[in-house]
# Entry
Amino acid sequence: MAWWLVNTLVLDVAEWAEVNFGSCELGDVRRTRRAVRAAGQMAEHPDGSTPDQFEIWSDLKATYNLLAEEDVTFTALAEPHWQATRKQACGRVLLIGDTMETDFGIHRQTKNLGPTGDGYGRGFFLHSSMMVDASTQEILGLAGQEIFYRTPAPKKENSYRSLQRKRESEVWGRVIDLVGPSAPGAQYVHVFDRGADNLDVFCHLIQQRGDWIIRAAQLHRNVVAMSEGYEPAVSERIPAERVQSLQAVLKAQALTGTYKLQVRSTKDHPTRWAMLEVRVARVQLRQGKRRTRYQKQVGFQCLTQWVVEAREVNAPKGVKGLHWVLWTSLPVNSFEDAWQIITYYEWRWLIEEFHKAIKTGCRLESRQYETAESLEALTGITSILAVRLVQLKTVARSQPNVKADKVIPALWLKVLRALRKKPIETVRDFYRHLAGLGGFLMRKGDGEPGWITIWRGTEKLLLAIRGYLAMTKKCG
Ligand SMILES: [Mn+2]
# Structure
């Protein structure tokens, strides 16, 4: 989809709601119409209280009733969006995966929630796969998601049972399967953090013919070091000196290159420039003595892939230097290739923005519903709304110099110009002034606006447009 199409879709609330929820199968077409209406109302006021969002009592009550229906599930509401997202994939796309914990509060009367956090939270876990265009960094949407619960620990439990119960990492594989293989002409590159570093996840990726970048968690894992001309077959016996820990293999590699990275300040340390050394290795993972049920099922024996390491050197005293080790199925034959892998991994901040948008942007955890099932259904709408909030910000940055009247609805520009009393020429101007309505000060040092001010501004502008239309209707 062309970026300006996304642009108007992101901006126009009614159209956005229709496109995302208009084909939900909820057991009755009236429910689908209600879902579209409810989503639109939420999108006009994402962080408002629930009564604020719906304004009219009958709308509020209808939304509560809708989300309590048995057929109105998280999956039923979100699935059309997942499918539409996957259809948009063209060329190389990243599928950034991660799990978010929710906590609706221990004192909440909501039925059927599970333990989260240290066991004192009440909520569920939401695992999402977010699709991002690898060449433009445009967020295309969510490609698949799953909600899961942590089962409470029984009174007496040994460590083996506890391990069995906590196989939460299996969600990575389930969502990989849900997203499935890419269509012809598209390449899926799944980007996962350390939570996904396990053989089962690699097996799922191979089954679905996906590529991957996964941060390694187990640097002591034994691997077979490959070298020019040495690529042993499955049946081949590996000489003992070829088997080393991942860490040792990386240490033995020649330097591929170095680069500098600006590290943002934290509460303990000022902003700094980190110098990173990059090393690359090609290694083989072999089946362990004990294979999991899934590894047996798919007949896993061995897997050869690349590893990219970025390690900070000369970190200042008291600072733990940056260190990333990334597994990847993509070929790494040069420093540029390695740097590309690291860059893709850094884009994981986009899914963190998405989680922030769900929690602070849409205030999911403060919503009052009677059952976990209703909250799950609400999460289906909220997730897609949160994507829209993050898109608002990235769209503003993708084509800043295009003429505003080419892509922004004329009425929007007219009302915003009238409110701001300033000329608005480019897309960048438009978003800065929109954010200005939402509290962005536009001083020289303020940089570009973030999504919070952009959609606060959007909210106000939409209200102003409603007022304008109501007035002109009455008078004309
Ligand atoms: Mn994670």
